[in-house]
Fold each of these.
Amino acid sequence: GAVVSQHPSWVICKSGTSVKIECRSLDFQATTMFWYRQFPKQSLMLMATSNEGSKATYEQGVEKDKFLINHASLTLSTLTVTSAHPEDSSFYICSAFKAGHKNEQFFGPGTRLTVL
Amino acid sequence: AQRVTQPEKLLSVFKGAPVELKCNYSYSGSPELFWYVQYSRQRLQLLLRHISRESIKGFTADLNKGETSFHLKKPFAQEEDSAMYYCALGGGATNKLIFGTGTLLAVQP
């Protein structure tokens, strides 16, 4: 199997605080994970590529100081939304890349962030 | 620039009718095209990819490089096919995916 989990599944926080979201590959190692953001009734927007043991690669227009990514192990990547504001409220989805003959991305269930 | 276009936000068909979900892409390199599906309250999952040239749940998709298209087709829709379908473009060494805006398929009984 190839299961990816995210924690928490939903979180509510006050404006100005930081929130950490975890993405874990439960039964395989993933040197590469991806973080996406999805607004209501819109598509997934790739935010960044998380590389184990090195710095994340951010897509154009995504603030790296705002969205801190750490990929400290082969099964865990974290996304920290720093000094959150209401406009950061969104659905954040991660995926883990499983290398092999199929080279497939497996998606987590997503985390709903609401900033008050 | 890499881009994926899904022109239809919603496609409503009756059970048993043929289905075609459109997808066009823009990519200067050698593309890898995927269809992902998201059933209600479930996570995104891979439906099929062009390099596999397979049929999954009765769905097929052919990569047409001349028309830069990767339309998803099924001859006879089932109610359980109702879901959100995303076309995605990959390729290159980064393994990242660029998603289209998605098409909601609603199959009426």
Note: The interface with chain A takes residues 43-46, 86, 94-102 of chain B (CB under 8 Å).
Amino acid sequence: KAGVTQTPRYLIKTRGQQVTLSCSPISGHRSVSWYQQTPGQGLQFLFEYFSETQRNKGNFPGRFSGRQFSNSRSEMNVSTLELGDSALYLCASSHGDREGQPQHFGDGTRLSIL
Amino acid sequence: SQQGEEDPQALSIQEGENATMNCSYKTSINNLQWYRQNSGRGLVHLILIRSNEREKHSGRLRVTLDTSKKSSSLLITASRAADTASYFCATDPKSSGDKLTFGTGTRLAVRP
């Protein structure tokens, strides 16, 4: 079974630009969650999508948005990029239909803002 | 906000020794999970312990949970150089407004 795939692996952008990151979950998983990981703040939850609907949202500004498609693939968009957005963005999938299911992570997209 | 705080932040041991990492959290939880992250990679799920469980084993891993103290520990026995990684606890809170929340992590280095 293929794991969670995130593309691209690395991305360099400049301030003010926007970026779209992609995540393909494990086949059969309907929940996709996104996290931002930085040395200073650690792992911060961005949002979770389940069956194309946003089910949970973390404390990030509206510049961060996402969506999920009917095949459960998800995209995350960040607009008007700031230097502080430099981070490793991780997505994780699970069945999402009951409590206590482990998250399966991709290897992330490393975003650098110049 | 960080629900879990790991202790110590960093740990260096010799191969063959045991490694113990602790996690403290603040709110009531459904379960607590431990994950491992190798440098530059995603997180890998290690073990899940439910709030009504006190101890769980998986191979060389032993996890304990004390809900009265809001703390958990991860013990890795007979460590190997390949265990070198960062280890995170993650709490699944009972509050419906929150999702899985990760701690700050413990960086473990196992010297061959």
Note: The two ends of chain A are 37 Å apart (CA to CA).
